[in-house]
Protein 1
Amino acid sequence: MKNFMRWLQRSPENKSVHEKHAHTIEGRAEHMLSPVLMNLVEELQQLAVGRAEELLSQLCVGLRSGSKDVDRYRAAENLTAALYPKFKFSEYGRLFLEDRAFLAYYRRFMDAGNWHSLDRKYTLNQLLKLALPLAGDMAECGAYKGMSAYLMCQALQSTGRLVHLFDSFEGLPAPSKWDGDYWTSGALRIPESTLRETLKEFDNYRVYAGWIPERFAEAQERHFCFIHIDVDLYQPTLDSLEFFYPRMCTGGIILMDDYGFTTCPGAKRAADGFFTDKTEPIIMLTTGQALVIKQ
Ligand SMILES: C[S@@+](CC[C@H](N)C(=O)[O-])C[C@H]1O[C@@H](n2cnc3c(N)ncnc32)[C@H](O)[C@@H]1O
């Protein structure tokens, strides 16, 4: 702690911090810092042995009013590297993070503060461009509140083609022995009205409420250019692949939301098993999704 106080005082980078807290640093010293703050510094010293001062210095640079966006990014990157080294920041300045229209769509439908699927929704929306010129409808297995369905309905608007949406509206079924212990029966349960509210500006979709695969037969005469499989578990993922794969047009895309997540081992197992005797490779994306392009 004393080191930190000395460092705060001597480092020119901390001039503003020092001035702001001069009464604390020079006058009443450590006891003016809350125990929480003192613990934080001590824990950081243990977490990043020999680097705590450097990291705090970067944090100060990042927090300084008027600091550059890139400096904040570097501070976040370095602090994250100490706190959760498994996570690797990507290159600074990716344009999709500046896409205001897309951010507005995401904020409109997602719970505040939850950015966990921004990259996946963005990827889905980009892939829809590949599917749009092809013939056929789109479908989603596991529609939930309709965030992905919104993008699919938007893509097919005014084309005369439909989006077919399958969900139990009772949440997940009981996980199988392949599914690990992250998910539980009944998780992600929402009423069908939530989905319909999200999609209220569209009329180019059909909802099939029920357990997959019970209502697939109602879409058996259709062909598809894009399928989104997002059911988290082994059995419904396998059922979805078995039904939709033969109905995909050439060049059609199967996007699997859960394939690359440690929390969804059953979804990966189902896909790996299903595609073993097929010619198409499964392309795993860094977002956690995987896609297959029907040959
Ligand atoms: C992760 S959510 C889907 C999120 C949605 N695709 C989105 O982009 O916002 C998973 C959904 O799959 C549904 N689901 C999972 N297994 C199912 C099954 N066997 N039959 C029907 N629905 C199922 C759940 O009810 C839940 O709504």
Protein 2
Amino acid sequence: MDLIGKVLAGATLSRQEWLSVISDRASYPDARLRSIASSIRDSIYGRKVFIRGLVEFTSFCRNDCYYCGLRRSNSRAERYRLSAEEILSACINGYSIGLRTFVLQGGEDMYWDDGRLTALVREIREACPDAAITLSVGERSEDSYRKLRQSGADRYLLRHETADAVHYSKLHPLSMSFQNRLECLRTLKRLGFQTGAGMMVGSPFSSEDTLASDMAFLQDLRPEMVGIGPFIPHRDTPFRDEMMGSVSLTLRMLSIVRIALPSALIPSTTALATASSDGQIDGLDAGANVIMPNITPSTERRKYLLYDNKKISEEEAGENIAWIIEKLRMAGYEGSLERGDHVQAIADIPHS
Ligand code: SF4
């Protein structure tokens, strides 16, 4: 039995074994990985692609990640912060067109303390009772995560970016702790969030070896969601002259993640769509099953720039759900506005 056979039989692979899967293209060609990954996805979720409404609600951030256009040292970034009313109204508009998941994403903006953020989550919960609320607001204390969970947040995205400690230290300033990031992810899982981890592919100093560490970490953590996108340099960061990550390696990794975590919710990311014109559909063909159109008010949408040339297409924004569903249909997928919970999370909901 080869290594993919072992994974499919439920085995945990070592880092070295993951390295073989990633690097041995003769034994594990892209086409084979893609075909296995999409059959696994189809057997669990069918051809459904879950459509989430993304609200990028603050571009302020206290951190200084070397790869990110929102880093605090970037004095050229145009900063904005939506008010609670604007965020709520974006969700209510999204709800009225049928969206049942909202992803509230922002930098680590200390204005959004626990009091403000929990109040906002409660208001969204009240206005959109059957919608899933996903937060993506970085590292916080266990107490803060608990309060957010209790106020009604269902899911939390926190990409680990790399599971190799030395690599992490080359992408982040000393003030940021690799251990704390991993600990945050474990805490989120423990508190019952459907938890999302994920990494950039092709970031500076990365290698197939660091990706193997990512796979070993993901197989151990078993997050419900995994976000994977190619590294794309931003001109106002220390990595401005670095090469963009490979789209084909990103797609290969996406298939490998689907095989390792069969029921994961995996977005076909905006970074993929930015890196290649067919990137979003290619991501779905590689095994993804989520897309996150932007429902941020259009005046602010262009200011949330994690990397250069971010794809900001009005056609593919939340206002144009019918067009998005049609595009998915033409590619052989069924766009779904439902909550789209992780299958295990649905199984865990007590039935009376
Ligand atoms: S990656 Fe996130 S935490 Fe880091 S600077 Fe950008 S917004 Fe802030």
